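Module 6 notes. Inverse folding takes a fixed backbone as the condition and produces residue identities as the prediction. Think of it as a translation problem where the source language is geometry and the target language is the twenty amino acids. Below is one complete input and output pair. Work through it position by position during the lab.
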């Protein structure tokens, strides 16, 4: 009998990147974008600078609605089939050398899109093959035991890192939600009782094919205004440390104003701008270490260089 997957452990309080989706401030038209993506069945492509909250939005939607969550972080070696299924060549070679070859299906593992579009099929395949699906990338918001939920969120993170053949190879699976396993010829069909929100992120380091863009809903995430940064700090404190005090509010306001000034200066100099994630790093450091956001505080000047500007010898 196959044991149930072990649920993920709670995220450590001091973990800098918490992927559980709880502390997220939705801005602009993101809520409407989710509704439109679900109504049309189209992927939601989030554009924006690194650290602007693209990846964590997918986790937030899954947490907010109690949907299953699947994630694949793209690398330069990722190919389109990796998001649909993977084939364990190493295990098959080892089994062949040990003269204990299993049926070819036993070496196929469902990918994130298979688990989202046909969760019952993916689960049944894993049980038959005695291979429960593994998580890729960071730990999911929901465990694999939630894979059979009727709705799910799939995050395909940083698609611009891959060769352009990857988005081109996803045109048919994302459009029809069906594909064929090349090793066995088996057709995987979408299940009628499921609905999946596919969130794709790009840092725009590489231009995506026009054919792929035409098949996506596209939302650009801009840098938050100072008042929005304060709300981001409040959400994180309330979710993980609580409560958000008057002192926290004053610190967040001072820091948000400082970040805004740095961003304007970065525009003039054509430098990178401090991200929302870096604002949070600086906020937590100031909060815990008692650092004042004042140029007279030497620790603040050092922290500004390390956490926000990421440059040497910046006054």
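Target side of the pair, the amino acids:
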């Amino acid at each position: 009998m196959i044991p149930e997957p072990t649920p993920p452990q709670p995220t450590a309080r001091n973990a800098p990147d918490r992927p559980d989706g709880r502390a997220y401030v939705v801005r602009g038209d993101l809520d409407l974008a989710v509704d439109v993506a679900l109504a049309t069945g189209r992927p939601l492509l989030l554009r924006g600078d690194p650290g602007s909250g693209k990846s964590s939005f997918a986790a937030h939607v899954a947490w907010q609605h109690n949907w299953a969550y699947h994630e694949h972080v793209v690398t330069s070696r990722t190919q389109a089939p990796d998001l649909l299924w993977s084939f364990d060549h190493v295990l098959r070679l080892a089994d062949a050398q040990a003269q204990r070859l299993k049926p070819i299906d036993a070496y196929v593992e469902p990918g994130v899109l298979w688990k989202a579009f046909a969760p019952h099929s993916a689960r049944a395949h894993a049980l038959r093959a005695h291979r429960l699906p593994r998580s890729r990338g960071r730990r999911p918001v929901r465990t694999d035991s939630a894979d059979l939920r009727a709705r799910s969120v799939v995050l395909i993170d940083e698609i611009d890192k891959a060769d352009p053949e990857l988005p081109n190879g996803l045109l048919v699976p994302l459009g029809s939600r069906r594909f064929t396993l090349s090793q066995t010829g088996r057709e995987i069909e979408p299940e009628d009782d499921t609905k999946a929100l596919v969130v794709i992120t790009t840092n725009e380091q590489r231009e995506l094919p026009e054919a792929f863009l035409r098949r996506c809903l596209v939302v650009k995430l801009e840098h938050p205004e100072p008042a929005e940064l304060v709300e981001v700090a409040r959400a994180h404190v309330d979710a993980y440390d609580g409560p958000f005090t008057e002192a926290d509010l004053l610190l967040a306001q001072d820091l948000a104003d400082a970040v805004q000034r740095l961003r304007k200066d970065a525009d003039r100099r054509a430098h990178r701008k401090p991200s929302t994630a870096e604002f949070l790093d600086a906020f937590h450091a100031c909060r815990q270490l008692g650092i004042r956001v004042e140029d007279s505080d030497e620790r603040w000047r050092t922290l500004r260089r390390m956490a926000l500007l990421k440059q040497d010898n910046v006054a």
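Reference fact for the lab report: Residues 1-11, 132-140, 142-146 have pLDDT under 50 and may be disordered.
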